[in-house]
């Protein structure tokens, strides 16, 4: 079954939220990262040794919110399937390695293969970003809640990431071919098989070209986004005037991604990750 990753739009949304609207300077803290992955350790490693967690206030539609954000780099050594999901709980430890609380979980975007039975949530091999975003209305936050969070930011030194669902099961994922059922062959069948192989090669070439075109559009979009982000960070109000046009371009980019057939090759996946990292790095540098 064909799978399609649309992580780009989640990243765009997070990055635009960081520069759009009224936002305080906020504060951030760097935590050392430890991982207790259990069975997932056979498939995933945490690439970041340290992560930055940021707390800020944002205004939206007349309401003010406290927003906690962070991003964690993961490396998937081999594609893995699960019956639950790939999100991670986050425990905060002090300098003595004593647990003092928890932060919001990291979300990991998965693809789906409903032909794979109960193990239908898929994480493909390669680089992955897990995202944390916790948004609470300031009017609903009690003084005790804020005090507990302030303690995490002041005394926290380590975070420990663990799979969110202890009952989750994992298995290596191998995508099935749509023509996996065997059939008896004759000399005529052999001729048909040769023809089918030619069609498959042509289709594969076309699919690769589709993804190359989509990635070209992605990179151009990211370059425009970074330029706009830099203008906004310098207080150039014309940046917000350009925002609607950039959203329209995002929709066009989405059409290209949706229209691309098949799956990414290893080199295309690496290029995708490199472009995405460029965008996220630019957003973090503007904070």
What's the number of structural domains?
2
Unreliable sequence segments: 1-26, 178-190
**Global structural class:** alpha+beta
Number of strands: 12
- Arithmetic mean pLDDT: 77
Question: Helix proportion of residues, in percent?
Answer: 40-55%
Main sheet properties: 8 strands, mixed
The best one-word shape is: globular
Distance between the first and last residues' Cα: 40 Å
Q: Please work out how many helical segments DSSP would assign.
A: 5
Element string (H = helix, E = strand): HEEEEEEEEEEHEEHHH
Beta-strand percentage range: 25-35%
| Radius of gyration, CA atoms, in whole angstroms | 22 Å
Which keywords apply here?
287 residues; 2 domains; 8-stranded mixed sheet; 5 helices; 40% helix
Question: What does the model show?
Answer:
With 287 residues, this protein is α+β, with helices and mostly antiparallel strands. It has 2 domains: 1-176, no CATH class; 189-287. Helices cover 40% and strands 28% of the residues. The protein contains 5 helices and 12 strands. The protein has helices spanning 7-19, 143-155, 187-233, 238-259, 266-285; strands at 27-35, 44-46, 50-60, 63-76, 80-82, 88-93, 99-106, 111-112, 121-123, 126-137, 158-163, 170-172. The strands form 2 sheets. Strands 1, 2, 3, 4, 6, 7, 10 and 11 form an 8-stranded mixed sheet that branches. Strands 8-9-5-12 form a 4-stranded antiparallel sheet, with no helix packed on it. Strand 6 and strand 7 form a beta hairpin. Helix 3 packs antiparallel against helix 4. The longest helix has 47 residues, at 187-233. The radius of gyration is 22 Å and the shape is globular. 21% of the residues are buried. The model is unreliable at 1-26 and 178-190 (pLDDT under 50).
């Amino acid at each position: 079954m064909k799978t399609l990753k649309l992580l780009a739009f989640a990243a765009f949304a997070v990055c635009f939220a960081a520069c759009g609207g009224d936002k305080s300077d906020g504060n951030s803290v760097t935590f050392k990262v430890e991982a207790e992955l259990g069975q997932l350790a056979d498939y995933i490693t945490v690439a970041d040794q340290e992560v930055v967690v940021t707390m800020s206030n944002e205004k939206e539609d007349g309401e003010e919110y406290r927003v906690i954000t962070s991003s964690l780099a993961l490396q998937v050594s081999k594609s893995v399937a699960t019956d639950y999901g790939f999100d991670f709980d986050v425990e905060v430890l002090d300098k003595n390695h004593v647990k003092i609380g928890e932060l919001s979980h990291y979300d990991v975007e998965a693809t789906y293969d409903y032909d794979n039975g109960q193990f239908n949530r898929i994480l493909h091999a390669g680089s992955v970003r897990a995202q944390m975003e916790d948004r609470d209305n300031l009017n609903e936050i009690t003084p005790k809640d804020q005090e507990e969070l302030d303690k995490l930011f002041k005394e926290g030194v380590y975070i420990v990431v663990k799979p969110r669902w202890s009952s989750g099961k994992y298995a290596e994922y191998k995508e099935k071919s749509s023509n996996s059922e065997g059939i008896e062959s004759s000399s005529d069948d052999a001729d048909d098989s040769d023809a089918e192989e030619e069609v498959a090669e042509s289709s594969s070439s076309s699919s690769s070209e589709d993804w190359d075109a989509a990635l070209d559009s992605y990179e151009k979009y990211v370059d425009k986004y970074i330029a706009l982000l830099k203008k906004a960070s310098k207080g150039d109000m014309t940046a917000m005037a350009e925002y609607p046009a950039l959203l329209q371009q995002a929709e066009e980019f989405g059409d290209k991604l949706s229209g691309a057939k098949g799956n990414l090759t290893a080199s295309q996946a690496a290029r995708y990750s490199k472009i995405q990292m460029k965008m996220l790095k630019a957003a973090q540098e503007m904070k």
